[in-house]
Amino acid sequence: MAKYIFVTGGVMSSLGKGIISSSIGLILKSMGYKVSMLKFDPYLNVDAGSMNPYQHGEVFVTKDGGEVDLDIGHYERFLSEDLSKANNVTSGSIYKTIIEKERKGDYLGQTIQVVPHLTDEIILRIKELLKKDNSEIIVVEIGGTVGDIESLPFLEAASELKNEEKDVYFFHVTYVPYLDITEELKTKPTQHSVKELRSIGIYPDILFLRGKKEIKESEKDKLFRYLGIPKERIISVIDLNSHYFVPELLLNSKIKEILEELFDEKREIDISNWKNFTSKLNRGGKIKKVGILGKYIELKDAYISLKEALIHSQVETNTKIETIWISSEDLKNLEKNINEVDGIIIPGGFGKRGIEGMIEGAKICRLSKKPLLGICLGLQIIIIEFFRNVVGLNDSNSTEFDEKTSNPIIDLLSSQRDIKFLGGTMHLGESELIIKENTKAYQIYKRIFTKERHRHRYTFNLSYLDILEKNGMLISGRSRDGEVEIIELKDHPFYIGVQFHPEFSSKPLSQHPLFSSFINSL
Ligand code: GLN
Fold this sequence. Notes:
Rossmann fold, alpha/beta, seven-stranded parallel sheet, binds glutamine, globular
């Protein structure tokens, strides 16, 4: 008999529901349960792949090539597990399945409705994932905020499941604003959002109250009086300097005992590996300044996995990393901004905006011997700069930025040429690389075969391979079918470009060696 935990959000979005869900997943796993994680996203996109990082933050990529919500990245990092596209389900994907079934004639004669067809399909996705993972518990995070029109079918499905199954629990995350003028925490919005939940038949078992101040006993008393939720099950989750401390905060708030009481089952917990990691988080260490040269600097969520991977490598290399966001569009201050940091990362990206600044940045790093790590688009930038300024083909470009360039040194992958639809059709997910011995890449990976996650349509045009190598660029990693995956410059402390995304597989307990090696070169 499986246990189901639904995590809902009240009052407003961006409260860190994903972090609370991940922390609960980690705690349950540390108590010896086999746990599945599922994120429902109420939007109508079939997956996150087509969404602008400005609006929605990073598109995370799973091993099996799912373009998913960034919360799946949090789940992977907290649970130290690789998840799959089945761990993220959008309203769009559910509607798509239903409409396809309807067209096939599976519902012949019936009127297809939100209840029961949509809600049944939602419940089916939950049960299928439990079965696939062979898990005892599933933590289901419902995106959006209670009261949103879009998330209603998911709440309705959760409420229906409660009638069908014995072990269904509801954890509600809300916000408690603090009024500076009266120096008070206000619980009224929480009361309203719980009442809204109740109107759908959902009674929260635990309340997680987010905010900048600790909730006092008097406020818990008030919530108990209005909502009947026992005080011990009202947990104050204040802002911390790292979200990796949230599991310990929850344990200090007796979450383990609450879970044992809910499940009527006692368990030992072993969370020592995690605590070993967090104990090193605030250790300090030598300060290293890493500049991230990109166009989405206004919205740091666009590069969230990169930021996390740097935090993991900070623990590994015993340093304190300061991340400085450098706009590739601010050409006037580019050189000055680059001079102020110890090394540069050019992260992944799409479209023409900000490209020339990145190319200039790569040139500055090459000439001044400043460490540079180019990721995906970053590798393509390094190659364009090299062809323009070392080889001397001034008009070199990617066909992504200039379709008519006379030197298309970055061009569509051959597998992309006949593609008509943009959704889910890039080169996605994990594939194998072959690393050349006696290279920096080999020193980093310490093996010939490895796998990395990809998300791109363009790649180095192999008809220029001879020129690239003859001019001194070392190709240190190739894919099985010969595509260029890793490049490096020999006479440079660290000048490496990779066509894949190492940041997606870095985890607190198994950080990616490319980042620690980059940090060690600073
Ligand atoms: N826009 C480039 C491509 O499609 C790079 C993609 C990326 O950086 N993820 O190949």
